[in-house]
Amino acid sequence: MTISRQDVAKVGLLARLALSEAELDTMTTELSNIVGFVSLLAELDTSHVEPLAHPLDTHNVFRDDIPLPSLTTAEALQSAPRHDGECFLVPAVLNESGAA
Amino acid sequence: MQPAELTAIDIVTAVRQGDLTAVQCTLAFLQRIEAHNGSINAFLHVDAAGALATAERIDKRRSQGLPIGPLAGLPVAVKDAICTADQPTTCASKMLAHFRPPYDAEVVARLRAADAVIVGKTNMDEFAMGGSNENSAFGPVRNPWDVTRAPGGSSGGSAACVAADMAPVAIGSDTGGSIRQPAGLCGITGLKPTYGRVSRRGLVAFASSLDQIGPMARSAADCALIMETIAGHDPGDATSLTGGVPRYSTQLDQPLAGVRIGRVPEHFAAGLDPEVARGVEEAFAVFKAAGATVHDIQLPHAKYGVPTYYLIAPCEASSNLARYDGAHYGHRATRRDEEGHRATRRDEEGHGTAPHTPGAFESPLVEMYCRSRAEGFGPEVKRRIMLGTYALSAGYYDAYYAKALRVRRLIRQDYLNAFEQVDLIGGPVSATAAFKLGEKTNDPLAMYLVDLYTVTANLAGVGGISFPCGFTKSGLPIGFQLQAPALGEGLLLRATDRFQHLTAWHQRRPKSIPSAGPAGR
Amino acid sequence: MNASPTAPFTTIIGLEVHVQLQTRTKLFCGCSTQFGAPPNTQVCPTCLGLPGSLPVMNRQAFALALRAALALNCTIAPTTKWDRKNYFYPDLPKGYQISQFDLPFSSAGHLEVVDPKGAFAPRDVGIIRVHLEEDAGKSMHDEAAGTGDTRIDLNRAGTPLCEIVTQPDLRSPQEARAWLNELKLLLVYLGVSDCNMQEGSLRVDANINLHIPQPDGRIAKTPIVEIKNMNSFRSVERALVYETARQYQEWQETKAEMGSKPKQTRGWDEPAGITRGQRAKEESSDYRYFPEPDLVLVTVDAAQLAAVQSGMTEPPTELRKALESRWKISAYDSDVLVNQGRELVGYFEELAGAIGEGKVASNWMQQDVLRTLNERGGTIDAFPVTPAGLADLIRRVTAGDFDTSRAREIFAEMVTSGRSAADVVATLGISAVDDDELLTLCHELLAANPKIVADVRGGKEQAAAGLIGQAKKKNANVNPGKVREKCLELIRAMG
Fold first, then answer.
1. Does residue A9 or residue B350 have the better pLDDT?
2. Residue A33 belongs to a domain with what CATH number?
3. What is the mean pLDDT of residues B371-381?
4. In a shared domain, residues B181 and B117
5. Residue A46 near chain C (CB below 8 Å)
6. Would you say residue A67 lies in a domain?
7. Most buried of B217, B322, B407, C234 (most Cβ within 10 A)?
8. How confident is the model at residue B218, as a pLDDT?
9. CATH number of the structural domain spanning residue B94
């Protein structure tokens, strides 16, 4: 199994990881190796096996609809890289309506 | 005896009886940390003032005749993946270097309520991804038995601090072996409980369906003591088990007569170091001497454990780590237009420089995301995020993620079948004793294989314990692992405790730990 | 342009509706869902997506979602799970939304919309699925500030939403609007949601394309467009009308058919009255769904379903039919009443019960109560005249104490003063005119109006009307009907 450099660049964008040219190269090699290794699973016939996403068999875990104290705004923002005392600040989100 | 050499049980007994104050005990361990952390690098943060203040409060309460908790005065080190409201929680990542959680993890809250003294936060592989503790953004931990070697990982700091008597007890987390493997390589006892036995609330998630918190200490008896405080249902964790918690400590001395221990012949195939193999076989002999019987069993799909794990864990991690994007907390890349010497600084840090020229990103927001994450995460974290993102992406999901989930069911079924024949499964924790720092850092796949014997327990959700069962000729600990069916912690702790009554491996201490070593930050 | 029966195409519309469930707390944490709080005051580690935080599902949210799905005639899955939908956006602090992908808790339902005025034929709209998911926070971009920063308020993050996806069964913008009204009515009736679009508790996206018959008999299908940013049902209708025309025009120019380009998203620009194309996201939409490992499965058995069903109030469609049969009112009348909401229907039923008559009660509701509510504002709960008080008034009219127009005056006074009919009658000096009084009055009238008497005797009975006005002047409390009746009787007695 090989993964192309282009695949890696695409995955990098999906994962929001900026990769330098050098990183793209090493990542392409390493991911190909790892994916080759995990492809060992392909030799198993699992056509009659249901996926198991979670080790627990429990179900129906709920909490009651009772309000609990929230954090203060100061606590909520305490680790924010940028804020204005009320809101988190992030670089411009492009106007989705395209009307900007 | 120096307080720093006492077991957890000795300490809480001495404090309760007034033979030792919480302050004396805390000071003794703080002094050990002061003397040796420079060479071991087990702690990322030491809260001496907070710990002493807590200890003073406990002593005062005791002197006033007020009730004190079951862990009163016991210093506990906590893996830096577990949230503490009064100390940083960095996950050994540059991403969270300045992060302070506004809340305590459930285990931390329980420890505090039991009057334990939280002394500090321990080093680890970044976001718990690694098997050697070399993936820490704040430098590797060194193995107290040989500071040129790795302590294992990812709870390497927790294992090393107990081995070096810097704390009697540490809390670790285990996603694919991260408690058991470093415990084995550092010669201490570490328990990975059944999935859901200990609340995960406040444990920074790596792979949510595999993560589990557990105690690391010098003996099974000490682990039992800690479990009585940290285990149990938490309504704030939907995956937390509701059953009551046994008084593990009171059940330790029951004999092992009639207990059936499974032995997996494949464990002894090529790849297992002969010295380790010998130590493990000798341990089986000790169990037999204790009255247990040993039976060869099969775990036919165990060999698929590592590839299965290295699909499921990265897939979940790619999602769990999406929140570290520089928007609400954590590292945010400086804006290009605000910083002149960005390239220089990035080169110094060895982090990737984005190939993109300004305008190459879809928006300033996407640029902030991509660069913050590129700067904040180390190479192994990036590798796993990339792998998981790839394996979940359109067109690959069925071949990789869904396939791994199917194999996961086969692996769990192997355990269910095996536990119809035996009560416990025994074997090695790692194929070798502690390896040299740097030995595997250039080969991600070789590093992944250190989890060979441990990942299947996480995939199946069952518990496992690791403890020393001998030493190599060069004086490195050899670890033994026992695994039990779901909620079998009582038997794991009891069997280990019985073993530790017949052997003294767990009482050995590293001879001389350099007080100021080459390991400095 | 509307899709009239003469249009050279069929308009195909499907809707995707998000409604906020009426819970006190968020879907996965105990933070309040109250609207309008200062930014970032209703947040905790879980809805901020802080490291180590975990979700635990709100029981009431699931119960309300179940109620909605049952009312929409959906099949409830015996086992359901939640999935993570992964994408990066600053109003989504975890980097994924907890939603449902391949095992929604309900599917395959339908909801019919009927227009009693007959503007369109009854339309039964299929529901593909209803699922439960969490809302995102709010991004605010202040262009005027010129800082280039977007402000993020996470108060709304984690609010429980039901997503309702219809089949493309709607055939006109007008139908779409009517169907949305019916859906909203249903959900408000059931207490599932307040469906307040201004506060964002109901949001609609619409998918639309045209099926255009070709000379060769083939049906050409235009590319499907998803329309977003519609802030009212009126906007939905307007946007769909606009988009219908735009697509037809585009078809005539380009002959582009479905599949020739990726599905387009267009935003509705309300002030401009047009839809505008939105830029496609760079990585299309690879959400990498996978099962949420922090939550466990939810199972629903027959007993649970029965319990939810039995605890549910009558949905509007059934209520309309019930009112028609219980009170013998027309479909039109029951539609008007039911569309005003559960509380108004309660008022009506109490009134009709008290006077033992549906049609009269319905007329009073529509002509007097509703009109007064519209003029005064406010809700029926706070209406100053109780059903019992109004029933008392109506009974007096029926008894002939006074006529309807006099009763309206009394009603108006009851509304303003909050007093009872009896009280108002006494204060205004309104009292029933007894038979002797009436007889005397009529004699006086006949004596004073020989011409009218002669006309009536000559066969022009309608001339008696002239007597009524005079009677009212002499005594405001007289019942005109009785005056007329008595006068005619006296004239006839003259032989």
1. A9
2. 1.10.20
3. 96
4. yes
5. no
6. no
7. B217
8. 97
9. 3.90.1300.10
The pLDDT, as a whole number, for residue C330 is: 85
The residues with which B78 forms a beta bridge, in sequence order, are B121, B171
Both B167 and B225 in one domain: the answer is yes
pLDDT of residue B337: 56
Say how far apart CA C411 and CA C418 lie, in whole Å: 10
Reference B483, options B454, B460, B463, B461; nearest CA is B463
Residue B287, helix vs strand vs coil: helix
By C-alpha distance, the chain A residue nearest C301 is A60
B79 belongs to the catalytic site: yes
Do the domain assignments include residue A17?
yes
Question: Rounded to a whole number, what is the distance in Å from the CA of A52 to chain C's nearest CA?
Answer: 10
Q: What is the mean pLDDT of chain B?
A: 92
Structural domain of A10: 5-42
* pLDDT-flagged residues of chain A (< 70): 1, 94-100
Token output for C202: 């109901």
Alpha helices (H) in C32-80, listed in sequence order:
45-48, 59-71
Q: Tell whether B234 and B342 lie within a shared domain.
A: no
| Whole-prediction pTM | 0.87
pLDDT of B428 strictly over 50? yes
In a domain, B315, yes or no: no
Say yes or no: C151 contacts chain A, CB-CB below 8 A. Answer: yes
Would you state the pLDDT for residue B424?
Answer: 98
Residue B154 is a catalytic residue: yes
- Report the gap between the CA of A99 and the closest CA in chain B (Å): 16
Alpha-carbon distance of B264 to C89, in angstroms, equals 48
Classify residue B294: in a domain, yes or no. no
C218-240 burial string, b = 16+ CB within 10 Å, else e?
eebbbbbbbbbbbeebebbbbbb
Which one is catalytic: B155, B158, B173, B178? Answer: B178
In a shared domain, residues B99 and B190:
yes
* Domains and their CATH numbers in chain C: 10-303 (no CATH), 314-427 (no CATH), 435-493 (1.10.10)
Any bridge partners for residue C111, and if so which? C125
Please count the structural domains in chain B.
Answer: 2
* Reduced DSSP (H G I as helix, E B as strand, rest coil) percent helix, strand, coil of chain B, to 5: 45, 15, 45
Pairing outcome for strands C83-86 and C290-291: antiparallel
Substitution target from C149, C279, C284, C294 for chain A, most A beta carbons within 10 A = C149
Contact B405 A37 (CB under 8 A): no
Highest-scoring range by mean pLDDT, B391-395, B515-519, C24-28, C338-342 = C24-28
Q: How many domains does chain A have?
A: 1
Give yes or no: residues B364 and B468 share one domain.
Answer: no
Express as a percent the part of chain C with pLDDT over 70: 95
Q: Kindly indicate the confidence band of residue B41, based on its pLDDT and cuts at 50, 70 and 90.
A: very high
Report residues of chain C scoring pLDDT below 50.
1-3, 282-283
Do the domain assignments include residue A62? Answer: no
Supply A45's token pair. 């016939």
Residue B90 located in a structural domain = yes
Could you identify the residue written with the tokens 């199994």? A1
| Chain C touched by A1 (CB under 8 Å) | no
B328 and A19 in contact by Cβ < 8 A? no
For residue B55, the enclosing domain spans 3-243+254-264+422-503
The token pair at B102 is: 């506004």
Using the Cβ of B485 and the Cβ atoms of chain A, whether some distance falls under 8 Å is answered with no
- Residues B361, B445, single domain; the answer is no
More confident residue, C495 or B234: B234
Residues 38-97 of B with CB under 8 A from A: none
Q: Give the model confidence (pLDDT) of B322-331 as tens digits.
A: 999 999 999 9
Query: Is residue A54 domain-resident?
Result: no
Quick: pLDDT tens for A17-37: 999 999 999 999 999 999 999
CB contact under 8 A, A59 and C31: no
> ipTM strictly over 0.95?
no
Question: Quick check: C59 and A62 CB within 8 A?
Answer: yes
Alpha-carbon Rg for chain A in angstroms: 23
State the pLDDT at residue B355. Answer: 46
